[in-house]
Amino acid sequence: GAGVSQTPSNKVTEKGKYVELRCDPISGHTALYWYRQSLGQGPEFLIYFQGTGAADDSGLPNDRFFAVRPEGSVSTLKIQRTERGDSAVYLCASSNRADTQYFGPGTRLTVL
Amino acid sequence: QKEVEQNSGPLSVPEGAIASLNCTYSDRGSQSFFWYRQYSGKSPELIMSIYSNGDKEDGRFTAQLNKASQYVSLLIRDSQPSDSATYLCALYNAGNMLTFGGGTRLMVKP
């Protein structure tokens, strides 16, 4: 079956701009996660959704970051006033068993 | 101290040898442990999970867990050049998230 999909695969933006990153989870998976991976590092947790609600957003670095999942399927990660330090690969994962998570291909964000 | 520690490598092994990848963790409450493989420029791919002390084998892969010593390892038998990748150790606890180590880069030389 289809895996987790993410769009766009690459996003280049200028400092101060707003970006949206989209994640389409595996069909039927109720749990959805966003992680951020910097070069040479492991993924770092950002936010977790169970259904439509954000069950844990403790990993969001600051209030410029926000994510939604209005219908309990597709999720959008939104970053306002982007900074060069936001450059990373943003990974989405979904799960129907909380500890077993399947990752999408990621969105590589570059902030110039 | 990081929650999950891995030697960054690179770990270089000849084709056909056993590759041994190690990971230590600090949270004694962790219940579930995972190994992900990540090829350069790609996303992490789940290859093994382990929940109980001891060994778990799946094909050429064996995961080992020792909760008392707080380490988990991955053995890859008959290593192939296609196994060359970064291997990420991750744990899951009640925090509803995976916590990853920094990964170990494995190079299998023909």
Give a verbal description of the structure.
The complex is a heterodimer of chains A (112) and B (110). Chain A is mainly β and 112 residues long. Helices cover 0% and strands 53% of the residues of chain A. In chain A, the strands form 2 sheets. In chain A, strands 2, 4, 5, 6, 9, 10 and 11 form a 7-stranded mixed sheet that branches. A 4-stranded antiparallel sheet of chain A has the order 1-3-8-7, with no helix packed on it. In chain A, strand 7 and strand 8 form a beta hairpin. The model of chain A has no long low-confidence stretch (mean pLDDT 94). In chain B, strands 2, 4, 5, 9, 10 and 11 form a 6-stranded mixed sheet that branches. Chain B has a 5-stranded antiparallel sheet with strand order 1-3-8-7-6, with no helix packed on it. Chain B has strands spanning 4-5, 11-14, 19-25, 32-38, 45-50, 54-58, 61-66, 71-76, 85-92, 98-100, 104-109. With 110 residues, chain B is mostly beta strands. In chain B, a hairpin with a 2-residue loop joins strand 6 (54-58) and strand 7. The chains are: A mainly beta (112), B mainly beta (110). The interface between A and B is medium-sized, with 23 and 24 residues.
How are the SSEs ordered, and which strands pair?
The complex is a heterodimer of chains A (112) and B (110).
Chain A: E1 5-7, E2 10-13, E3 19-24, E4 31-37, E5 44-50, E6 53-56, E7 65-68, E8 75-79, E9 88-97, E10 100-103, E11 107-111
Chain B: E1 4-5, E2 11-14, E3 19-25, E4 32-38, E5 45-50, E6 54-58, E7 61-66, E8 71-76, E9 85-92, E10 98-100, E11 104-109
Parallel strand pairs in B: 2-11
Antiparallel strand pairs in B: 1-3, 3-8, 4-5, 4-9, 6-7, 7-8, 9-10, 9-11
